[in-house]
Amino acid sequence: xxxxxxxxxxxxxxxxxxxxxxxxxxxxxxxxxxxxxxxxxxxxxxxxxxxxxxxxxxxxxxxxxxxxxxxxxxxxxxxxxxxxxxxxxxxxxxxxxxxxxxxxxxxxxxxxxxxxxxxxxxxxxxxxxxxxxxxxxxxxxxxxxxxxxxxxxxxxxxxxxxxxxxxxxxxxxxxxxxxxxxxxxxxxxxxxxxxxxxxxxxxxxxxxxxxxxxxxxxxxxxxxxxxxxxxxxxxxxxxxxxxxxxxxxxxxxxxxxxxxxxxxxxxxxxxxxxxxxxxxxxxxxxxxxxxxxxxxxxxxxxxxxxxxxxxxxxxxxxxxxxxxxxxxxxxxxxxxxxxxxxxxxxxxxxxxxxxxxxxxxxxxxxxxxxxxxxxxxxxxxxxxxxxx
Length: 388
What we know:
12 strands; about 400 residues; alpha+beta; five-stranded antiparallel β-sheet; Heat Shock Protein 90
């Protein structure tokens, strides 16, 4: 009996020891779980977890801080409210297809952040298993790749711009020089043969081609300086009304060639805060375009109006006008194209690209209102500075 009692006590001690070990192990497991949960919470990636029903039941602290929403708002399908409408269908399809096949997936989509702005997200999702290899659902980690995406888009745009730039040089710059060389050769032959009948006509064509080439070279040089960051931005207060009159006077020869009247509807003074050289380039391009696309005997008007803290300058013509499908492409380097003027004047469309970039550099906006056969009005705004 005594021996059985001793054996029982030893058994109890052994069970207590095992129980103590199990408790210790459970404490260690709980600590490990807490540690892993803390790691998930503080991890810089946006982490999510979903159950067998494909619904999400966990989002880490980083995710909630990014979206500015609570766990209650995000769980289930709540998180989908922040996905961009244009990306939602493809995002959901990728997730469900991978889930059903128990496969890892990688997808990119736009999601709204706490400031209400859409950011590009790269989402890595993987099937999640228990220690006994039981499938529990999915776990994923997301990263904000907006900067990377913007750089990719900028690179695509830069490449397209470069291609357009070389296209302009190769095609549009060659055209006026071909005319200059060709008609110069005719001119030499005519003079050698003492046939002066078409000398004036050929000389006029050479002059127009030379002016076209010079205008194109000027715009190309200015645009190149702007793109490379070599152009100095020097905003100052100046009277744009006076500048408009000066630019109009410079283009008087072109207007007289087509018998086009340029009417300045301007106040005595109109002060703006901008880079004077840039604004001069904008005015030259817009008025030259108006002359180009206005029929002989037409009319161009230039006016200004003050609105809030801006001055709006409008260059209007009663020329050929612009179709609606072309208006949106006018200020796009990749999609812009040249249209011959009323007297077959050549161009590249680069001038309007310059205008847009210069206006935006000066914190203004540029837009156009036009109707085919009626005419066009190119408008741009600039910040004003009250004259002291």
